[in-house]
């Protein structure tokens, strides 16, 4: 019986161990690149897929879309889907308090959770500020949290909470 418990404990500890990262947390430039890559991956997932009409979105989602119109050059509507493109107005993405950990679906927007299976088990969970230039040159920022990691091609990407509720600074 003791051998069985020891075997179970050993197998559980092997499952819970996360390999050390092969790279450090992202720099400001890498975080911006990763955040944009994550947004584009999400847009690719939504593009052309039928969903609810805009009138069926909760108020918070509509507010987020209104915010996004100020930070995206183009908001493309195809078959009721908002396909996000050209995220150039993002000025920078700063990161803080980055820790290497397993990707927890609870820390990822529900819309992006289907993308988790495409990512490595470990990533840097960071607090971030996304800085944008809105219409008429208005500078704004919003806080977010999420995971930054290098994909199979060695490029930075992001999966987590979408930045919304931009405030002027």
Q: Describe the global form.
A: globular
Our count of domains comes out at 1
Q: What Rg is obtained from the alpha carbons, in whole angstroms?
A: 19 Å
The overall strand count is 7
Strand proportion: 25-35%
**Helix percent band:** 25-40%
Please state the structural category: alpha+beta
- Helix count, DSSP H or I runs of 4 or more residues: 3
Query: Main β-sheet, in a few words?
Result: 5 strands, antiparallel
Task: Please give the alpha-carbon distance between the first and last residues.
Answer: 63 Å
What are the segments in which pLDDT stays under 50 over at least 5 consecutive residues? 1-14, 50-88
Rounded mean pLDDT score? 73
H and E string = HHHEEEEEEE
Sum this structure up briefly:
The chain is of the alpha+beta class and 169 residues long. It is built from three helices and seven strands.
């Amino acid at each position: 019986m003791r051998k069985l418990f020891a075997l179970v404990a050993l197998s559980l500890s092997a499952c819970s161990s996360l390999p050390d990262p092969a790279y450090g947390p992202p720099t400001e430039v890498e975080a911006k690149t990763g955040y944009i890559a994550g947004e584009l991956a999400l847009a690719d997932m939504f593009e052309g897929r039928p969903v609810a009409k805009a009138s069926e979105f909760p108020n918070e989602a509509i507010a987020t879309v209104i915010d996004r119109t100020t930070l995206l050059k183009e908001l493309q509507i195809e078959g009721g889907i908002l396909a996000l493109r050209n995220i150039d107005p993002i000025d920078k993405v700063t990161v803080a308090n980055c820790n290497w950990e397993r990707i927890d679906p609870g820390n990822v927007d529900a819309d992006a959770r289907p993308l988790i299976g495409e990512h490595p088990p470990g990533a840097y969970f960071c607090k971030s500020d996304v800085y944008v230039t809105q219409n008429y040159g208005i500078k704004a920022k919003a806080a977010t949290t999420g995971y930054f990691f290098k994909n199979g091609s060695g490029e930075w990407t992001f999966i987590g909470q979408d930045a919304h509720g931009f405030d002027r600074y």
